[in-house]
């Protein structure tokens, strides 16, 4: 498998937290970071999609947000 090697820099405290999180997850550091980056990219893509959707169709209502949370299996805290 082809890989893209890169060097990154971060605050030492954040670096310690990242190493600990990877260790807790039982994952190699590079795999943990790759998964975190992929999650961030999906989150940004979803945010952009929702922004465009709301621009075209109007702001989502609380009822629509609750219905989406239910459909996705998320709990809805403080739901009226």
Q: Can you describe what's shown?
A:
The chain is mostly helical and 80 residues long. The chain has one domain (12-72). It is 68% helix and 0% strand. The protein contains three helices and no strands. The protein has helices spanning 12-25, 29-57, 62-72. α1 (12-25) crosses α2 (29-57). It is elongated, with a radius of gyration of 18 Å. The model has no long low-confidence stretch (mean pLDDT 93).
Topology summary:
Blueprint: H1 12-25, H2 29-57, H3 62-72
Helix pairs in contact: 1-2
Q: How far apart are the first and last residues' alpha carbons, in Å?
A: 50 Å
The count of strands amounts to: 0
Give the radius of gyration. 18 Å
What portion of residues belong to β-strands?
under 5%
What count of domains describes the coordinates? 1
* Average pLDDT figure: 93
- Give the number of helices: 3
| Structural class designation | mainly alpha
Fraction of helical residues: 55-70%
Shape: elongated
Task: Let me know the largest β-sheet.
Answer: none
């Amino acid at each position: 498998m082809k890989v893209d090697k890169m060097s990154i820099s971060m605050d030492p405290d954040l670096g310690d937290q990242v190493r600990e999180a990877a260790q807790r997850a039982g994952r190699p550091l590079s795999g943990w970071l790759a998964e975190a980056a992929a999650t961030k990219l999906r989150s940004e893509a979803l945010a952009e999609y929702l922004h465009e959707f709301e621009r075209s169709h109007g702001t989502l209502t609380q009822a629509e947000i609750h219905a989406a949370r239910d459909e996705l299996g998320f709990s809805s805290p403080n739901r009226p």
